[in-house]
Write a sequence for this structure.
């Protein structure tokens, strides 16, 4: 029989006994470091738990889950906090895995064992000496596990598919407090659900992933003044029609502030940037991008780079900040609607809005050898809108994003949860999966977490018997 904690104070008091049994730290709102431990890359909001377990190892995670379930408390998990959507707020336990950063590379098998708190930077640096690279995303400071659980679209994905397609084993602690090693043979249903179904099924403590024989890419950015080249997104879209799978690209549009920290050619300008990551020779890559260079970029940053410098492709901000973002997965792009996206990113739009289109397809469209829960593989593009969101701007930002994406709803096939930064309604979560797959996910959730102990950012409820 579980003892039900009546309030946050009771849970905090009970945590003293837990602290004596683990090697990590147990923090309450009165503890030094509590606010730092619960914060993440997303500064728009933060988890507000009664108790934080800052785990040092997998045994600490097991103890934390057992403590929570024995006391009737829900659980949330955080490593880097990039994708925080709905903050955890209540009488519960936050398990912080940010200390679990070990990465072990097996070069002969081309695999890496990655602990739950590791960032892609940890894996990239460990793999590079062996001439290998992970299927990481655009920003190396993103957490590996959360990225893969959501599917994982990276700069090599048109060549190799989703990061979730290249997982060999997952170590997880389920709601019964039992540590499991999950593979395609040991537990095929849970293995299927974990790869693309999100963090709804337990606390992952480690994951074994494939590495790719990639040492260098041809990539970087071409930056344009949109006042001079407003046709940029249309030219890019038509160019993507026949590029090889080895060519990954995106176009983004925004207005830079007129401040000294911004490089002079971009300061106060409305710019468009084409991001390029070509998994091939520099000579072939340069030939492929000729039609884009003919538009006359104000900055040409394309060159051959080591994969260890792959962050240069998207050149995204790597400091925590408050933001909100939405997206739609599209079957195609309507060129006649692109001028409206250019306008949305212009200086006249307040609050500011970054608009991006990313080319999908290629290996992303094919099912992996071992099927998983990743949905909407037929999408050819993803349209995203993202805004720096300051106090008092939340409602205006949400309204602007909803209105912008509604204009593309007839071309949409669903939503990509890894490109969503903010609270998501249940119908949108459903749209991230094929209908039969969503139903299967609810059944698996009912089998491993019927009482909804785990409160994920994008929760999939357990299937009801009624």
């Amino acid at each position: 029989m579980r003892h039900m904690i009546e309030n946050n104070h009771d849970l905090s008091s009970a945590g003293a006994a837990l602290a004596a049994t683990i090697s990590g730290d147990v923090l309450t709102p009165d503890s030094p470091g509590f606010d730092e431990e619960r914060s993440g890359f997303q500064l728009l909001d933060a988890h507000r738990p009664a108790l934080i377990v800052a785990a040092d190892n997998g045994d600490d995670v097991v103890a934390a889950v057992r403590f929570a379930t024995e006391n009737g408390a829900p659980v949330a998990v955080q490593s880097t906090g990039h994708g925080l959507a709905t903050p955890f707020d209540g009488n519960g336990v936050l398990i912080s895995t940010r200390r679990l950063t070990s990465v072990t590379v097996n070069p002969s098998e081309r695999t890496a064992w990655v602990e739950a708190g590791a960032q892609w930077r940890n894996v990239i640096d460990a793999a590079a000496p062996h001439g290998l690279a992970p299927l990481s995303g655009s920003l190396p400071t993103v957490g590996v596990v959360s990225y893969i659980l959501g599917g994982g679209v990276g700069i090599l994905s048109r060549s190799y598919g989703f990061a979730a397609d290249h997982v060999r084993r997952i170590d997880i602690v389920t709601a019964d407090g039992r540590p499991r090693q999950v593979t395609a043979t040991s537990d095929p249903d849970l293995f299927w659900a974990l790869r693309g179904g999100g963090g709804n099924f337990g606390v992952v403590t480690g994951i074994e992933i494939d590495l790719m024989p990639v040492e260098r890419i041809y990539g970087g950015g071409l930056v344009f003044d949109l006042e001079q080249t407003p046709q940029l997104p249309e030219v890019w879209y038509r160019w993507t029609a026949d590029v090889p799978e080895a060519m990954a690209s995106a176009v983004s549009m925004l207005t830079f502030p007129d401040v000294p920290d911004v490089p002079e050619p971009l300061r106060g300008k409305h710019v468009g940037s084409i991001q390029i990551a070509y998994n091939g020779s520099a000579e072939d890559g340069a030939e492929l991008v000729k039609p884009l260079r003919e538009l006359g970029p104000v900055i040409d940053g394309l060159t051959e780079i080591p994969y260890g410098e792959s962050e240069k492709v998207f050149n995204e901000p790597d400091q925590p900040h408050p933001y909100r973002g939405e997206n739609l997965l599209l079957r195609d792009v309507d060129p006649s609607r692109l001028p409206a996206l250019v306008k949305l990113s212009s200086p006249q739009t307040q609050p500011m809005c970054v608009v991006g289109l990313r080319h999908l397809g290629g290996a992303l469209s094919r099912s992996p050898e071992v099927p998983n829960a990743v949905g909407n593989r037929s999408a050819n593009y993803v349209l995203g809108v993202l805004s720096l969101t300051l106090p008092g701007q939340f409602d205006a930002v949400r309204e602007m994003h909803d209105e912008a994406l509604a204009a593309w709803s007839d071309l949409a096939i669903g939503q990509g949860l890894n490109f969503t930064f903010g609270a998501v309604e249940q119908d949108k979560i459903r749209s991230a999966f094929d209908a039969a797959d969503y139903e299967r996910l609810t059944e698996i959730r009912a089998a491993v977490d019927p009482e909804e102990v785990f409160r994920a950012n994008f929760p999939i409820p357990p299937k009801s018997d009624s």
The domain at 216-422 is CATH 3.40.462.20 (Vanillyl-alcohol Oxidase; Chain A, domain 3). The CA atoms of residues 115 and 328 lie 31 Å apart.
